[in-house]
Amino acid sequence: MPKDHLILAVPNTGGVEDADSGCAASYPLVEAQTLRAAGKQKRKRRQSGAELLEASLIGGLLFGLIFLLLDISMALFLRSTFQNAVRIGVRYGITGANVPGPGQDDSIKAVVKKNAVGFLNSPTAAATIHVHFMSPVDGTKSSNAQGNIIEVSIEGYPFRLLAPFKHSGNPLISACAFDVVEPYTGAPPPLTVSE
């Protein structure tokens, strides 16, 4: 064999390679790798829909949880906002304050609407605001005279859910506050509607 012609053994292949021509003899390992790659491709074809199915199942649950958290947090925000608004309305009402023009109940409703962050601006939502004056003795309907109880409430505000899922109706949010009417410096202010 001439010196310039060498045959090298390729490690871990089970075959030999001609150094001058770069040609390879039979390589059992290369054939095994080719067979393994073909097997992986068959498995990938069988499992290609599984990834999409798993993603859709997890995505559906994830979006459901996100919408649930958003709906619960918005409902809690509305409830606390409405509770604060009626509390401020009661504090306004017990002093006998009245904006010139409408009756005291309209003034109280305007204060509640102003403190409800715009959620009660529509006529339908504003109709959920109620002002009641009650006797402290038996709880019957009464006037706005001193010593009587004033109740300011938001009753049955329809909360529209954000979740696009089927549900049987919108939950209703309510808030209520009571206090005793303080003595007036003069006559009690007039009422527009006695509820």
Describe this structure in words.
There is one protein chain. This protein is α+β, with helices and mostly antiparallel strands and 195 residues long. The chain has a domain at 76-180. It is 42% helix and 16% strand. It has 3 helices and 5 strands; from the N terminus they run E-E-H-H-H-E-E-E. The strands form 2 sheets. A 3-stranded antiparallel beta sheet has the order 3-4-5, covered by helices on one side. A hairpin with a 6-residue loop joins strand 1 (7-9) and strand 2 (16-18). Helix 1 runs antiparallel to helix 2. The protein is rod-shaped. The N and C termini lie far apart (118 Å). The model is unreliable at 5-10 (pLDDT under 50).
Give the end-to-end Cα distance, rounded to a whole number of Å: 118 Å
Order of helices and strands: EEHHHEEE
Strand content: 15-25%
| CA-atom Rg in angstroms | 39 Å
SS field, number of helical segments: 3
Residue runs with pLDDT of under 50 for 5 or more positions: 5-10
The helix-and-strand class reads alpha+beta
Estimate the global geometry from the Cα principal axes. rod-shaped
Instruction: Work out the number of β strands.
Output: 5
Please give the share of residues in helix: 40-55%
Largest sheet: 3 strands, antiparallel
Average pLDDT for all residues = 82
Which sequence of strands runs across the widest sheet? Answer: 3-4-5
Task: Give the SSE map.
Layout (H helix, E strand, L loop, with lengths): L6 E3 L6 E3 L9 H67 L9 H11 L8 H4 L2 E6 L14 E10 L13 E9 L15
Antiparallel strand pairs: 1-2, 3-4, 4-5
Helix pairs in contact: 1-2
Give a nutshell description of this structure.
This protein is of the alpha+beta class and 195 residues long.
